[in-house]
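Below is how a single chain appears once it has passed through the pipeline. First comes the sequence as given, then the structure the pipeline wrote out for it. We keep one example in the README because the format questions we get most often are answered faster by looking than by reading.
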Amino acid sequence: MSAPSTSRRQGVLLLGGIGVCALAIVAGARSLNAHEQVLFVNALDLPVTVTAGDEHFTLAANDHLSRPMPIGPLDVDIQGEKGPLAHETVFVTDEGGLFVYNVLGAAPLYRTTVTYSRSAPSTQPDSTPLALAGTTFQRVGPIHYVLTDPPERLTMRKEDGNSTVRTHLGQAPGGWTTSYGWLMSLHRTADAARLAEGLWQALPETPAARNAAVAARMVVARGEGLLASLAAARAQRDAHPDDVDAQRMWMHDMRRAGRNDEVRAYLQAAIEREPGSVAMASLLARTEPEPRGTERLEALLRNHPGDPLPRRALAVRYVRQQRWAEALPLLDAMEQGDPEYSRFQDTHAEALVALGRRDEAVRRLSERLLPLADKEDGLDLDDVLLYAKLVGHASQMGTKNEVMRRLIENVQKDRPDGSVGEWLAASLGHHVDAAKLRAVPADHPLAVATRVLMALAEEPEFAARASANADFLGFRHIDTETGMLLAAEFERLGDPALAVRMLDSSGVELGYGELRDVLSGKLPVESITTLDWGERAALHLVLARQLDARGADSKAVYARVKKELLLPGAVTIALQSWDRPKPSNAVAGDTVP
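Resulting structure:
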């Protein structure tokens, strides 16, 4: 038998073949390594068409898709049903791991870690997930579980040691509204504004998207100062001249700037141009002294009985004038057919309480709120707070408090455990569980509000320290009665800067100049028609304390305060907890909070 041929030519051919294969393998490896996985996520309720580099595909509503994308600059174009939504160039790096393209930044994505151990192999999620919403493109790193729940148990390998950590990319329910809420809570207001404005473009027929864009834009402007806020409000007013809310935002900022006369002149000119404008006439009545403002509203209601604007304004005006019996039929009619009634249900409750019908107010409010408690996002925190004020507590214990328990359960979703209950307790001046409050992230708006309210229950100086760093977002869960009380007391104690901050942060319908005139005796509280009864009681309480500090008789003013208190709140807390000032030779304001 002959040996196999091993000629030099055959050897060269063999080596050549091996070399070609090696080059092909290397080229293939380089081709694979030149791409990274990009996860495209669409949280909108409409499909979008994505062009990313050479790739072209459609993402269905609330869908996601992963594609390999080349390393380097990547042009991404997003088209909606009615036109372009976004176009940008992102950069895919060679760091490895997963990259995410979140359409408009709308998906409420988050990253967390899950720890498995031999002693407890079930999931141990990290207590502080990282919110990834609001950013369109980012590298999230190595992810073991992508948009799927991690397993409850994991088989441990020998090389894992006693424990092993896995990363999880999740998506919270609620879509863009959840992302928007996260960004606002995290004080990323500029990102929230960009998200909301992109959504408004994508969803022009969705009022919630427009309202979110306006709110975020105003918060950003407020952080930049009064003039910037006023400029933003005026731009919004001019862009939407028929939008009553846009007009009122501008009026509010003008009041903060002490320019009420300019507002009145603007509205009068608008009515001269358009004499039949019910909206402008209703707004003008807000700026007019009595009895002219009420007379204008009564005439508007007679001439336009089907228009909701005069009815709303007149009902509020009657309540502020203690004309409860005249206000109640208007409020009852609003409850039956006004789509904006929820904004006035607290006024309705106050009227019933003032007429001695508190039990009826509780019953009617619970009948309205309970059906909403069974719906996702059916209630907001103000609904639950109003109910708690009417019943006088926030207890969830026992069958008699079933309504309270159901209401709290609805608004507690997607908020830190226990945060709502402790906030309600603090709002009523009741005991707050310190351990539960410590478990809530310190910068969460409910935690900020709870700490301010707890400090208010001590002394004004404590409240000053707690609220010194709080901004508009931190105060969004503190009502205007609290803001008015703190602003007036800080001004009495000689800290005008903190007083201004309280007025701005709490959204009180009162300028600093007006506050100063009230405390100096130049401006009667009763002449300010934009104040509700809690806000009036707050001003009168501080006037009474001012008399105490001067050694003057304050009994009549304290009696007025108690008469004006229809529901529990900051003023009742202060009456129970604050020491009354003692007269001395010191000038009020020597001690700065």
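The radius of gyration is 31 Å.

See the next section for the split statistics.
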